[in-house]
Write a structure and sequence with these properties.
single chain, mainly alpha, Serine Threonine Protein Phosphatase 5, Tetratricopeptide repeat, 2 domains, 7 helices
């Protein structure tokens, strides 16, 4: 695939965020998230954190549309990308945030609470990133 796949992945990731915020078209939101993940996956310069973030976004959109099974599957893939590629900080914390949301949707409050705590335990150097994470965890 061409280098333009990277830009398509970025553009679709950002479009997915617009749809997450507006909730104007949930079906399109899910399709955009999958398309973004595809373009990141085939981009020659794709880094493991891009794959992890794609899985995170897929988990988020499936949580928003109320589908716990794919939300959990993508959150678990996100965490696996982090573990397999020694991704820490922001990426690891958000893998646990995704798992917390997905488990909560699935009705497993104990697992959700455990992943919230695991997300909070991750070291994040940037104080603004930590604030953003805490704000997101407060909505789980």
């Amino acid at each position: 695939m061409s280098k333009s796949d990277r830009q398509r992945g970025v553009d679709l990731f950002n479009r997915t965020w617009e749809l997450i915020e507006s909730r104007e078209d949930d079906d399109l939101m899910v399709h955009c998230a999958h398309a973004s993940a595809y373009h990141w996956a085939v981009a020659p310069e794709c880094a493991p954190q891009n794959r992890a973030r794609s899985e995170w976004q897929l988990s988020r959109v499936y949580t928003l549309v109320g589908h716990p099974e794919p939300a959990l599957a993508h959150a678990e893939r996100c965490l696996q990308w982090c573990v397999d590629n020694a991704l820490a900080g922001w990426d690891l914390a958000y893998a646990h945030e995704a798992l917390a949301r997905a488990h909560k949707l699935a009705g497993d409050e104990a697992a959700a609470a455990s992943h919230v705590e695991q997300a909070r335990a991750v070291q994040i150097a940037d104080p603004e990133d930590r604030e953003h994470l805490e704000a997101d965890l407060a909505t789980v």
